């Protein structure tokens, strides 16, 4: 049996990064070994990791994911090398294609050939982070004479953000594994069946969205707009069609295509929201999180959305009408919550035992 790692996505939504120091330094004692970041319309992926490394270098640093279009391959290698030098816990560089809304709409960069660009970036990083001189034409870019002056003492793992067979297989055949997200524990079985038995040292990471509140209506209201947006992005639309959830999302897709974003959100069935953004008391959430600890899964990262009432309880009005933080009180409450969310036993069976029957045994056909 292999111990599954648990991590927290930083920064916690709605909480300033500067208020995370005491939380980060308490994570190891709360049962967490990793800190994860993402990169979309909020914080960048690397600054929170650098801060976390300074606050507690025992933690493993990990991104999930950094879009491959928005940074050049050399910049990614340089950044990974610098971060790896800051931590004793290791670095996992998660890269991926992201979505056109982040790449093109926010950055003005064409979302061209996402699969090949991801593959080429992975191949470049694999060589560059080992200290090789990389020079030559890839399908989507050309590099001339790149070499790291001082390669990392411990080579970072490079994993792919992967939703469907093509990217999943690429992550495990040429990279160090894959991270998947926005799926239910039942859907995870389909992903595992596609991956198959994993060689030693490969990572299968799952990102779980959590809203720890017993108020189901409030949890759904808080997560519905985000889920409507992301499930109607082309990669996630295709992902859930492949998983067999297309009929459940058809009404939302229809309204989204008509330009009715509010209608698209309203059309999402409660059952879909409940499975993709789990909620309940901390103990109920913990039981649901434990369902993602499946054979082959090496790490679970939690995206924890704090309820407004949680935040209001640890802030007070400041000068000029702003909010000031009662940092010690907030830290204590946040760490108590994270401690309660982490499953008590987090051991997954070896991946070679095969996929379970049922949904995971479906034929994994479909586009990448």
UniProtKB/TrEMBL annotation:
Would the keyword Oxidoreductase turn up in this protein's UniProt record? yes
Polar residues biased stretches: 348-362
Q: Which residues form the Luciferase-like domain?
A: 9-298
MF (Gene Ontology)? oxidoreductase activity, acting on paired donors, with incorporation or reduction of molecular oxygen
Q: Where is this region: Disordered?
A: 343-368
| Alphabetically ordered keywords of this record | Oxidoreductase
Query: Sorted alphabetically, which Gene3D superfamilies does this protein's record hold?
Result: Luciferase-like domain
Query: Which Pfam families does this one have?
Result: Bac_luciferase
Q: Does the keyword rRNA-binding apply?
A: no
NCBIfam families given for it? F420_Rv3093c
Q: What is this protein called?
A: Oxidoreductase
Species annotation: Frankia torreyi
């Amino acid at each position: 049996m292999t111990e599954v790692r648990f991590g927290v996505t930083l920064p916690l939504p709605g909480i300033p990064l500067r208020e995370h120091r005491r939380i980060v330094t308490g994570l190891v004692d709360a049962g967490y070994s990793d800190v994860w970041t993402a990169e979309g319309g909020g914080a960048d992926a690397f600054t929170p990791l650098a801060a976390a490394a300074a606050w507690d270098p025992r933690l493993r640093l990990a991104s999930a994911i950094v879009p491959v279009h928005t940074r050049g391959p050399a910049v990614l290698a340089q950044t990974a090398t610098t971060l790896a030098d800051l931590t004793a816990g290791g670095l996992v560089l998660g890269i991926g294609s992201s979505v056109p809304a982040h790449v093109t709409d926010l950055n003005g960069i064409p979302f061209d050939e996402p699969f090949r660009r991801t593959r080429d970036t992975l191949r470049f990083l694999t060589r560059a982070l080992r200290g090789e001189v990389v020079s030559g034409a890839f399908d989507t870019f050309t590099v001339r004479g790149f070499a790291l002056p001082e390669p990392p003492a411990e080579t970072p793992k490079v994993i792919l953000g992967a939703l469907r067979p093509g990217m999943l297989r690429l992550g495990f055949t040429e990279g160090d594994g894959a991270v998947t997200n926005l799926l239910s524990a039942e859907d995870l079985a389909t992903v595992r069946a596609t991956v198959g038995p994993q060689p030693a040292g490969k990572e299968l990471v799952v990102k779980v969205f959590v809203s720890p509140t017993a108020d189901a209506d409030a949890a759904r209201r808080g997560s519905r707009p985000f889920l409507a947006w992301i499930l109607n992005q082309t990669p996630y639309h295709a992902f859930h069609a492949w998983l067999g959830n297309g009929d459940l999302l058809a009404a939302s897709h229809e309204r989204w295509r008509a330009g009715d974003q509010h209608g698209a959100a309203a059309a999402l069935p409660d059952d879909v929201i409940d499975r993709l953004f789990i909620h309940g008391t901390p103990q109920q959430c913990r039981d649901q999180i434990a369902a993602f600890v499946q054979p082959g899964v090496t790490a679970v990262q939690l995206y924890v959305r704090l309820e407004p009432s949680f935040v209001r309880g640890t802030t007070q009005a400041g000068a000029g009408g702003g909010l000031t933080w009662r940092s010690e009180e907030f830290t204590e409450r946040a760490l108590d919550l994270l401690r309660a969310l982490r499953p008590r036993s987090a051991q997954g069976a070896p991946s070679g035992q095969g996929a379970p029957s049922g949904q995971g045994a479906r034929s994994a056909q479909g586009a990448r």
